[in-house]
Amino acid sequence: MSENLRGKASLPFKVSLVGDALGAGVLEGHTRDMRATGLSLVLPDLKVGEQTLVGEDRLLLVELELPTGTIEMQVAPVRYEQLESAETSEQKYLIGVRITEISDSDCVRFVKYLRSLR
Question: 94 and 86 in contact (C-beta within 8 Å)?
Fold first, then answer.
């Protein structure tokens, strides 16, 4: 996925910890923008169960809902910040992630979707 494709889109996703032996669970959120190499994820919390989503050597599983169906990818957080919201009192967090693994078929569907955003 060396193409520099990118676009803004708010798509729903579910995120969990890779190898979640402790059964921490799943968080739901939406994307803010996407590129062929990573995503910006908007989430209500930085923790799923007692486990934090960000940190050194942390890997996450993202199930992204494209208009054509769900794709899965493994991602690594590279940055995060708390978002300010004047509209609601709810805290939200933005996590920037880099795609580390995605199947060939899901990659093709993801790149095709990114191209459709142009």
Answer: no
